[in-house]
Amino acid sequence: MTDLDAAFERVFELAERGRYSTSPNPRVGAVVVASGGEIVGEGWHDRAGGPHAEVVALAEAGSRARGATVVLNLEPCAHEGRTPPCAGALVAAGVARVVFSTLDPDPRTAGKGREWLRSAGVATRTGPFSERAERLNEPFLVSVRTGRPFVHLKWAASLDGKIGTATGESRWITGEEARADGMRLREECDAILVGAGTVLADDPALTRRTGLNRSILPHRRIVVDGRLRVGAQGRVFSPEAPGEAWLATAIDESDPRVAPFRERGVRVLSLPAAEAGRVDLPALLAELARLGVRSLLVEGGGETAWGFLAARLADRVTGYHAPLLLGGRAAPSALSGVGYAILTEAPRLAGLELASLGDGFRVTGRLAWPGAA
Ligand SMILES: NC(=O)c1ccc[n+]([C@@H]2O[C@H](COP(=O)([O-])OP(=O)(O)OC[C@H]3O[C@@H](n4cnc5c(N)ncnc54)[C@H](OP(=O)(O)O)[C@@H]3O)[C@@H](O)[C@H]2O)c1
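^ thats the input. predicted complex w/ NAP below
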């Protein structure tokens, strides 16, 4: 392992500390490596509004930052946000070189951080460990690049892809370890969304339970119900639950049927209908982005997940699979809808990661669309 590899290993360890807390900001780690190879400063970004990783690491390094190399997973910012620009702080500290994995797509930085450093005579290098850095900051990078939230489809299924039995039983298909991991995943996302069918079948609360999330954003529990089949008394709409409950519907906001939801403190998003009472998903995601949601966990059911997939509005899939075979024509599947007619139309998963969880396994991958670069 080279000194640079070791420094990056530490950068990722540090950045990881912000996994559940930095949203809407990215997860960033920073180390300051003195010319002899010694790490003299470390930092990570903890919460939006708090100091950036670079500033924390420079403070620890003090005068030893002069002539040092600073290693980061993301380009230093060039803009004054809640805190002053990091590119300026690096120049002021007199560092000789800055190495980072990916450019920051935020148009206020997007290469301008690097340019600031270069024009001040600081050497820069972009690119090492870029895939790992992309994976770490998927929600931030995808949402900034696309202008919509990062969409993560998640399901718990039998080995044959059924998310319930033909009689509607779905608790619990997977074991304790998988369910605990699913709860951890909830903590990584700004919002969780389910379709009306899931609310009617399971009455889920969609709450976070582990206390891991410390971000400045409230947790949003979202139900998509085009024609308003669900009742306002559902657990997901409980005013006692922490965070906010939102209802996305194609019913007009002046319709008396939405009043009981409003009375429970639910935010009703009346959105354009794409077809036969279906909420237009691009319009929904645009609205969620406007309301500050960077990452959305879609927890089913199969109709809803298919809607996002069919519209190419999904970025990652995580399936928890149990060593169980359910079968059943009438049993709900992880994905339903009309399905793809031909294999070459179907997306594949890239960067597949597999993990054993109890007696089952978790599989996750990035969606790779046919024909996309
Ligand atoms: N094991 C698991 O991980 C898991 C997770 C969740 C659910 N489940 C199971 O899955 C089953 C429910 O799945 P499901 O596929 O029947 O239902 P679903 O996906 O939860 O809900 C489908 C319904 O939601 C509404 N909806 C979805 N997308 C919409 C859009 N773009 N615009 C407007 N409305 C939209 C529609 O209601 P309208 O038809 O009224 O327009 C649609 O019929 C249950 O058996 C549940 O137990 C299992």
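The mean pLDDT is 95.
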